[in-house]
């Protein structure tokens, strides 16, 4: 029930199978949410996504650290490389334009070295670092979005369970009333003051209430199972929900703080950062420090002149790379990013307008539902009073069974209208919190 309204009379359970409900743990909505923060698997997956994003940012920064590699190779030349030497290089009398083929080197060649490379300035590396930083912010916002959705689902399931629990209470109350009426009708029949069809009508109504109660109870169990799945606790654990439905004060909505808009704005930052990186890589050079130190070995295996000798080799220097032309690939990527940024800005405007419209609709629906709840509560009280008076009149012979059944139907209709109004209120209130980004509060 809503706080500050009359509470339903708690009806004792009349079937043994229903006594197990009393042994269930009563979980508050806050308890469900706090437990889900730890055990919900969707949130655990998204936390891992945040850790992955953090590692990607560290990976991008690691490209600034010097890279050291060790290299080694061995080559055996079955045929030595051939070079052409001008004949007048050794004999000035030889005519120009004539060459002699010579084979240089030895068949065994061994190389081993250690190389160092460190970027001094690379626009792509610095751009990647900035991009991964913004992407990490985006991942954290997406985690918050996922967290909001999980809390929204849990709250919706919790409210549904509360509504079904109230519906079960109503059905229990109606069933008790019907069983009392059935006893009265059976007594009147024994006294020849009622027809057998009258008794059958009341029996039919009792059976219909029993069937309806069983269906509602099955729905209630299904909702609880879905709630336990979202919380992350075993399905075998017996829990139930608090009966009271609290009516909370409406919080002010701030469109600028909604999470969807923050995500779009962060995506815009990422797109602009990627565009900036493309522009820089298009016009700015890359400068790297390179160094190498190693040895080169030459070997000959024909006796008696066989040998294996090693000679050191080392160097250090700078390597400058400047892009001249890459087939307009970068320009095409820049054009794509500009279009993506344009779509992103349009999407931000659309989200803002949509949020404003949905907030106004939800606020209006919440106000109407809140008033309807009050009206239907009064209708239940009035219908209950009419039903009791009609029962009394029926015992006194001034009201027929039809009058009693009509009063009973009116009571049940008032109860259903009340539950529908509560559902509308809770739905609108939860939607407002989601739109305002305050659902975690």
TrEMBL record:
Family under the similarity heading: Belongs to the outer membrane factor (OMF) (TC 1.B.17) family.
Gene3D superfamilies attached to this UniProt entry: Outer membrane efflux proteins (OEP)
UniProt cross-references to SUPFAM superfamilies, sorted A to Z: Outer membrane efflux proteins (OEP) (SSF56954)
Entry's localization field: Cell outer membrane
UniProt cross-references to InterPro entries, sorted A to Z: OMP_efflux, TolC-like
Ranges annotated as spanning the membrane: none
Annotated coiled-coil segments of the chain: 161-219
Organism of derivation: Pseudopedobacter beijingensis
Alphabetically ordered keywords of this record: Cell outer membrane, Coiled coil, Membrane, Transmembrane, Transmembrane beta strand, Transport
Name the record gives this protein: TolC family protein
Entries under Pfam families matching the protein: OEP
